[in-house]
Amino acid sequence: GNSVTQMEGPVTLSEEAFLTINCTYTATGYPSLFWYVQYPGEGLQLLLKATKADDKGSNKGFEATYRKETTSFHLEKGSVQVSDSAVYFCALSPTGGGNKLTFGTGTQLKVEL
Amino acid sequence: DAGVIQSPRHEVTEMGQEVTLRCKPISGHDYLFWYRQTMMRGLELLIYFNNNVPIDDSGMPEDRFSAKMPNASFSTLKIQPSEPRDSAVYFCASTRTELMNTEAFFGQGTRLTVV
Question: Smallest Cα–Cα separation from B100: which of A1, A32, A90?
Fold first, then answer.
């Protein structure tokens, strides 16, 4: 079946540090890949997405590249801010699977001054 | 649009009681999802509907859980009887067919505590 594996948290960084959160997936065919973000007390919000191999999704300074050869979709940001503190979820939607998302377990990011 | 609306935001109930969680999807969306979030298991898809019809309920943990969608603007998730291990945050999400393989919109969740 489909699955998503992300690095465990919490990840604690100083403001302006470089961020990488690793995500790998298992799926048949060509899934679509997503990063969602959950701020404290809120639901999940779409951060970025990529729907085919080598696509790069980007938003709010975050980027992730769909790497089919390594089945990865790592999230990066060059300079994090305190306001980026949240839980980040990697997710996939299988080929032809409509909107049935499979999520990773989430990675908590804490950014300190 | 007000987004996906869930109620209540918080629910505390005693073991054995019936619990009903409610969701109003975004108007015009034809897919509705119920998820459960726990520290141990992360975010799990329980069931989803398309055009008010349940499509996949394989994630529903057991017969104590049931979900309905009587119309396009309302869905319920019921737990009867509730148990302490049901304590979690339950999210409802919706999207529409034209947004396939793209964004699902989540409500703020219902935090359920069963004591």
Answer: A32
Render pLDDT for A18-44 as a digit per residue (tens, 0 to 9).
999 999 999 988 889 999 999 988 889
pLDDT value at residue A77: 98
- The 3-state DSSP class for residue A104 equals coil
Residue B23: beta bridge partners? B6, B75
**Interface contact A105-B42, CB threshold 8 A:** yes
Nearest C-alpha in A relative to B99: A99
Q: How many A-B residue pairs are in contact by the CB < 8 A criterion?
A: 57
Residue ranges of E strands in A1-113: 3-6, 11-14, 19-21, 23-26, 32-38, 44-50, 56-59, 62-65, 75-77, 86-93, 102-103, 107-112
Residues B68-94: what's their mean pLDDT? Answer: 96
Q: Which of B31, B48, B106 sits opposite A44 (nearest CB)?
A: B106
Do the chains contact at B43 and A103, CB–CB below 8 Å?
yes
